[in-house]
Each structure stands twice: as structure tokens, then as C-alpha cells.
Specification:
The chain is α/β, with parallel strands linked by helices and about 220 residues long. It is built from ten helices and five strands. It has two domains: about 160 residues, 3-Layer(aba) Sandwich (Rossmann fold); about 50 residues, no CATH class.
């Protein structure tokens, strides 16, 4: 059974209800989940227990903050995948950190967003969207379907000994960094980017032509 870490805002009743809906959708599809509001440490509930034991407020805060951070990092790494709820005007900061940790540890990520307030001029921040290969799920029932697809792809990568997205992206970023450090002009940089990304990303029907055009230069 695959375990999914549910990352997202959970500081008011509406946010918690939405995170619970995501969690329940995954459970109904046969996944196990870690939902911080149900399975994690709750600061407000634990804080009085430290005060009762004579701890100063600052010391109790420090202990709980370190404990919550440690538990969440472990659970992200222990999970097989992460669903990132990006609903809201601004994505939750903690969820962004959790998603980054998951991606750097080769965990498949599904981004859920049914709220266009988080869009910037119609396009989400590429540093966030890149975590899910620039794909967004907008309906609850699509979340487990997407995870099933991603886990299948991960298995195929292992069989074929292919790099996972983090390593592949890092290698491409290194190539770009080394290229631009040599003071290349914009046309030369554009050619490199086409070579790195064009064949995979050009619009269907233009994919071959955009790469062929570059090769003819």
C-alpha cells in the first residue's frame, strides 16, 4: 500500500475540511495517508502539557517547533508520494518546504489546485509547478488516479535505470549554468535550451520542426 503525505494549509476550518477531503479520497482509493492535522503533533494541544511541567513558554515553544519539524520531515521522506494542496491566494509556506523535501528525495508529487487565486497572470510559479512536471489536478477523484500513473512511471525508471526528475533537472540546470557562465549570447543560450527541452516540450505538431530548425542553424 502506497503512503501519501498530504501537504497544504490547515489553519482554519475550511482549509482543514479541504485537506480532510483530499485525505479521504486517497483512503477510499486504497492509499494510506499522513495528514498532519490528524496524524501529527498539534502545538495548541501539547503546549499546556509543557507549562504544567514547569517549562517556560519560550522553552516549550522551542521543543515543540523542533519536534514538529522533525516529525514532518521524517513523514515526508517515509511517504511514497506527496499531494500538494495549492488552493488559496498564496500557497502555504510549510507545504512548499515539504514538497521541496519530497521532490529532492524522488517522491512523486501531485499538485491539487481548484482555486485560481493562486495563479500569477494565469501561470503558476515555475519553481513550484516544476515539482509536478507542470501538471495540475483540479478534481479530488483525479488525485489517486494520477498517483497510480506516477508510481507506474517510477517503477519503469528503476527498471530502465533512468534518472529521477530531481537528478535529471539538476543535470540540465548544471549544463545551463556552465553555458551562461561562458558569456554566451542570447541566441546561443536559446539553442542550448531547445536542445535540452525542445523535443520533449514543443507543442505536438511542432515538436519535430522546432528541433529540426535548431539543427539546421
Amino acid at each position: 500500500m502506497f503512503k501519501i503525505y498530504c501537504a497544504g494549509p490547515l489553519f482554519n476550518p475550511i482549509e482543514r475540511k479541504e485537506m480532510l477531503a483530499i485525505s479521504n479520497t486517497l483512503k477510499d482509493a486504497g492509499f494510506s495517508v499522513f495528514l498532519p492535522q490528524e496524524d501529527g503533533l498539534e502545538f495548541a494541544r501539547l503546549f499546556p502539557a509543557f507549562l504544567e511541567r514547569g517549562f517556560q513558554q519560550n522553552d516549550a515553544q522551542k521543543i515543540l517547533n523542533h519536534a514538529i519539524f522533525s516529525l514532518d520531515v521524517y513523514e515526508v521522506i517515509d511517504a511514497d508520494g506527496l499531494v500538494l494542496n495549492m488552493n488559496g491566494r498564496v500557497p502555504d509556506e510549510g507545504a512548499m518546504v515539504e514538497a521541496g523535501i519530497a521532490w529532492a528525495n524522488n517522491k512523486p508529487i501531485v499538485i491539487f489546485n481548484s482555486d485560481d487565486r493562486s495563479l500569477l497572470q494565469g501561470v503558476c510559479n515555475p519553481l513550484v509547478m516544476g515539482l509536478s512536471n507542470f501538471e495540475v489536478i483540479s478534481e479530488y477523484q483525479q488525485i489517486p488516479v494520477k498517483f497510480t500513473e506516477l508510481f507506474s512511471q517510477s517503477s519503469e525508471r528503476i527498471i530502465r535505470n533512468e534518472a529521477f526528475p530531481f537528478e535529471e533537472t539538476k543535470n540540465k540546470g548544471k549544463a545551463i549554468s556552465e553555458y551562461i557562465s561562458n558569456q554566451k549570447n542570447q541566441n546561443e543560450i536559446a539553442e542550448l535550451l531547445i536542445n535540452l527541452f525542445g523535443e520533449d516540450l514543443c507543442t505536438k505538431g511542432q515538436r519535430r520542426s522546432c528541433v529540426d530548425h535548431n539543427m539546421q542553424q
